[in-house]
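User: quick one, fold this
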Amino acid sequence: MTHKERMIAAYHREQPDHVPVAPELWYLVPAKLTGKPFYEVASPVGTIPLWEAQLNCARHYDVAAWLVPGPGRSRREPPDPSTYEVIDGGRILVRGEMETPFGKLTSASVYPPDDAGWPIERPVKEFRHYEAFRTFYRQDFSQLDLSEIAECYDACGDQGIVETYVAGSFMDYIAGMREGGMVQAIYDVIDHPAYFDEWFEWFVDHCVRQTEHMAQHAKVDALFIGCGYASLEILGERLWRKYDAPLFKAVCDAAHKHGKIVHLHQHGGCMPILRDIVEAGVDVVCPLERPPGGDVTDLAYVKREYGKDIALKGNVHTVETLIRGSVEDVIAQTRECIDAAAAGGGYILGTGDQVGHDTPEENLRAMIDTGKRYG
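Assistant:
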């Protein structure tokens, strides 16, 4: 079987010829392998498509690629020079502006040449700015340019899976643009429940329409829901069940109507909500992080309780094992994951979050080689 065939079999909870090996090579390792500044891959003004760097990285290590391209500006085109400048230490300062009927919103982020970037200014600085932010994100999906997704799919071939983003946590959506981040966003939601409940109804409709459009028109193997900031430890189960559970179910229902698989990337803890995730109709869940970032300490239990209903991906610790552990530690944990979840299919050997760029090469190779031999 090819890497793609193994991934698709696992996504359908079937037994491939061996366990798909797919460490999360998101952007840190792919950017490092380009030999260029990281912001060329991982910033809005980069010139190398993220999916292209990821695909080259998957080929370099001969693992299954997991690519999530989206519509928007082609990286083949030069960025607008008015949106960025080089500052101290060779870092790039990227500025953004949103023209809305309620005025202009501004934002800024910094991207170093050798690590991940971070925001220094978010557009929603006061509660009143939310209304301007909302108007900016009302999209006509028929106008989306899907050519980059098609280019990615054709280039990927048998190397792995291509998905595209259709939704994320409602709280991620709010917090990503709110000065003060997730903490301030939670205060806002609690202080103004009626306002955000109405907005949430619009957001669900928006994500469902995006899902249906992408399912029908994007050249992909699956659809992707990403949760980056809204970890269960911060939100709590009440807010997660109020906003995320019904959103994910609506998206899954729309995707399944068009025969598409849905893959959820649920950061942080997930054990108290795994049954909710299954009942929402999610087909694949990752990254099943171990403590302290997550709470999956017994992958065999997760497989036993939920493996008949959902495919599982991840659980190799990216810090304690891959960065700080020995080769022997990596081999042992890789074998442990395979023993726990591979039987009967429906498991992809992956990492809990993305592989760090400071991961020793011998450790990453040990995970991959063990996965291929032992799996």
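User: anything notable?
Assistant: The CA atoms of residues 4 and 157 lie 8 Å apart.
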